[in-house]
Amino acid sequence: MLKNNMPQSALPHDTFTQLEAGRSITKTIEHMKRLLPKFIDSAKVKGIKVEKGLNHLYVKIMDCHDLFQFIHEDLEEPTRGDSPAIDIGIYTKGDHTTRLFAIEGKRLDTSISNYTQRKKEYVVNNNGGGIERFKKDIHGKELLCAGMLGYVQTDDFNTWERRINSYIAEEIRSSTIGVSWNTDDLLRLEKSDAVCATYGSKHLRLSGSEIDLYHLWVNLQ
């Protein structure tokens, strides 16, 4: 899905060319995957299981790159007191005005409290699920590609892929007003091993534009 020539986010043309932006995001993803074992070991040693704690730890470990800066709870509209915040914003070091990438983190865990009510929150929920927030232009509206980080704490990657896609299929079949869902929204497997699985998906936003999502799932069991 997301290749080396992935589309440019809404960056000033005098700052990045399309190719340079794509390469920067690719390097960011490579960095994120390379440090996954360190993140997994640290999460287990510290006993961190809650979403905010995992996001915070992930940023601390990832924010060691010479070129990129990772920011936890990155505000979408800094001038607003009620601004929504995405879990992780990624910038070029020294340039905090141009966001390269944005990531929303979600636990994939059937043991969480109120799981029955919360089971679809990777996709949708009453306050806007993970994918839903990108489709509604709440998160990453200036970007053409962004990410979802899945913390797999129960079951396996295949089981969660079936679950998430079944929830998306329910949205496709429903006739909700506003957000439109179609088969492009479904997750498509790119690669999977014992440590992580990666997926790609494409989504139509309320604004009429499209966003590509890169899904990185981490085995925390």
Q: Briefly, what is this?
A:
With 221 residues, the protein is of the alpha/beta class. 30% of the residues lie in helices and 28% in strands. The chain has six helices and seven strands; from the N terminus they run αααβββααβαβββ.
**Total domains, how many?**
1
Number of strands: 7
Mean pLDDT: 89
- Helix fraction, binned, reads 25-40%
Major sheet characteristics: 7 strands, mixed
Gyration radius (Cα, Å) is 17 Å
Instruction: Count helical runs.
Output: 6
Name the assembly state: single chain
Q: Would you give an account of this structure?
A:
This protein is an alpha/beta fold and 221 residues long. It has one domain (18-219). It is 30% helix and 28% strand. It is built from six helices and seven strands. The protein has a seven-stranded mixed beta sheet with strand order 1-2-3-4-7-6-5. A hairpin with a 5-residue loop joins strand 6 (196-204) and strand 7. Helix 2 (36-46) crosses helix 3. Residues 1-17 have low confidence and may be disordered.
